[in-house]
Design a protein that fits this description.
Length: about 350
């Protein structure tokens, strides 16, 4: 196959109520997967949320740890009691080493709040302001916390249906949860959107370890060394080891896997990769990814038989990078518009 030939799986299939343009044209100067990926760092989005009403959230977890999840509910002034009933409440989840105030979270919040949605942006367990309140930490398959979020939010009188958008690692969490009874039954769900999710964690680990990705590796390792030791309950030996971590794979082998009862990083990857759960999704899912994502291999996406489950809508593009999708003629990343159309 030539590099200019669009693979069959890169042509998005229409959902029952909408269709997407299969052609994604990048906006200058963001040509190629790396520039698409780094655009948000090189040219951060200027998005103010100062005109929104903000309610701080503290949600209990369900595993008996006593850990507390933190987040915010944002609405246009004067709509706090009705926004979640008139339209689905949009729940936003960040990626690895992120928090609720990342640029993509701000852009999505800005868009959906102005459309009349209540927007809940959450820190995953141990991230952002939840770090000092949690002894455990999130991982790619930690869907128990999604069950907790769904149950707590749906118990509110100002929440109707829940629509979910997961970025990168949390996209994997949502696609896994979409097939799980505890999550599906925990609330009245609307739809799910996943953007640039590592649905095959083994393939992602191998791709991420390539020499060409040394800049991304250095970026994440620096964040691991800075944030990892801040988690409560770590022994001095563990803190010292976290400050010497050399890769995400080493973090998963030495901490993520044993902390969550897995024998190894390999076992953790095998049991939590969303590719094994996507075919059994019980909720409508929009699944967005790019063939030139420097972190995520498009192969596992192409291997899924999307047509066998009518609840699945893949949008796989030739270019777009990792959580990039900066398209010609559009101010916001294209995944914002695609999410908006899917969730309407």
């Amino acid at each position: 196959m030539s590099k200019n030939t669009l693979p069959e799986a890169d042509t998005p299939r229409a959902a029952s109520t909408m269709a997407f343009d299969p052609c994604f044209s990048p906006r200058a100067p963001w040509f190629g997967g790396d520039l698409q990926t780094m655009a948000s760092v090189l040219s951060p989005p200027r998005v103010s949320l100062d005109d929104l009403d903000v309610e701080a959230l503290r949600l209990p977890t369900l595993d008996g740890s006593g850990d507390i999840l933190t987040g915010e509910r944002l609405t246009l002034p004067g709509t706090a009691d009705s926004a979640g009933l008139a339209r689905p409440t949009v729940v936003l989840l960040h990626g690895m080493m992120g928090d609720l105030d990342r640029g993509y979270m701000r852009v999505l919040t800005h868009t959906f709040a102005r459309l009349g949605h209540a927007v809940v942006r959450m820190n995953l367990r141990g991230a952002g302001s939840s770090r000092p309140l949690c002894r455990r930490n999130y991982h790619a398959g930690f869907t128990t916390d999604l069950h907790a979020m769904a149950a707590a939010l749906s118990a509110r009188s100002d929440t109707g249906k829940l629509a979910w958008i997961g970025i990168s690692l949390s996209g994997n969490m949502l696609l896994k949860a979409a097939s799980e009874t505890d999550f599906v039954d925990a609330a009245d769900h609307h739809r799910i959107v996943s953007v640039s999710a590592p649905i095959d964690l083994i393939a992602t680990s191998e791709r991420f370890s390539r020499k060409r990705n040394f800049i991304y590796k250095a970026y994440l390792v620096r964040k691991i060394r800075r944030l990892g030791p801040l988690q409560p309950g770590r022994t001095p030996t563990e803190i010292a080891q976290l400050r010497r971590i050399r890769s995400v794979g080493e973090l998963d082998e030495c901490f993520t896997a044993p902390d969550n009862g897995y024998a190894s990083a390999s076992e953790y990857y095998q049991l939590n990769s969303a590719k094994e759960f996507i075919p059994d999704a019980r909720l409508p899912c929009l699944v967005i990814s790019s063939a030139d994502d420097p972190w995520i291999d498009i192969g596992p996406y192409q291997a899924i038989k999307w047509h066998l489950n009518p609840l699945l809508t893949p949008v796989l593009t030739r270019t777009g990078g990792h959580v990039g999708f900066h398209g010609r003629g559009y101010r916001d990343p294209m995944y914002v518009g695609w999410s908006r159309a899917f969730l309407d």
